[in-house]
Amino acid sequence: MSYKFRSFINVEDIGPLEKALAEAQEIKNDRFKYHHLGKNKTLLMIFFNNSLRTRLSTQKAAMNLGMNVIVLDVNAADVDFVITHPEGYELDPKFVGNQQFVILPDAVVEKLSKTIEFTHWGQAPGHRTICRFVTSWATTEEELDVLEKTLNDAH
């Protein structure tokens, strides 16, 4: 990557357009090429207004760079569903509502699949799977406790 950390105010700030487009195509072809750049770094995004497109695209870009992402939706009304995940589990991304996307090692996913119902949403780098857990208003605290315990035991 040829850009240093700086502000982009005008399109001219990126330099030659052809070079920027070529680099964009290179990244599109291998979106995890620069995964190492975000290792051991965390991006905290704070939103005061709903901005789903901005939030998701920024989160996805940060995750493609290997970063951990934390989202704080200040004005969001969240359903009471939070997984207190053990060290090593990542949320991908923290959606406001009745679903959580958690990145789990494939070995953990295999164990969970035997007892917990969830969606295998997609693959993540490093033999990990993005898992979608969904609750409803009828989901009980006991069911969430079972999920949390199962996650902890599988780790």
The percentage of residues in β strands lies in: 15-25%
Query: How large is the radius of gyration?
Result: 18 Å
Query: Given the helix and strand composition, which structural class is it?
Result: alpha+beta
Q: Overall pLDDT, averaged?
A: 76
How many helices? The count is: 4
- Helix-strand sequence: HEHEEEHEEH
Given as residue ranges, the uncertain stretches (5+ residues, pLDDT < 50) are: 76-87
Q: Characterize the main sheet.
A: 4 strands, antiparallel
What percentage of residues falls in helices of 4 or more residues? 25-40%
Widest β-sheet, arrangement of strands: 3-4-6-5
Alpha-carbon distance between the two ends:
35 Å
Oligomeric state of the chains? single chain
- General form: elongated
Number of strands: 6
3D structure, described in words:
With 155 residues, the chain is of the alpha+beta class. It is 30% helix and 22% strand. It is built from 4 helices and 6 strands. The strands form 2 sheets. The chain has a 4-stranded antiparallel beta sheet. A hairpin with a 3-residue loop joins strand 5 and strand 6. The radius of gyration is 18 Å and the shape is elongated.
Descriptive key words:
155 residues; alpha+beta; four-stranded antiparallel sheet; two-stranded parallel ribbon; 30% helix; 22% strand
Walk me through the topology.
Layout: H1 17-29, E1 42-47, H2 52-64, E2 68-73, E3 90-91, E4 99-105, H3 106-112, E5 119-124, E6 128-134, H4 141-154
Parallel strand pairs: 1-2
Antiparallel strand pairs: 3-4, 4-6, 5-6
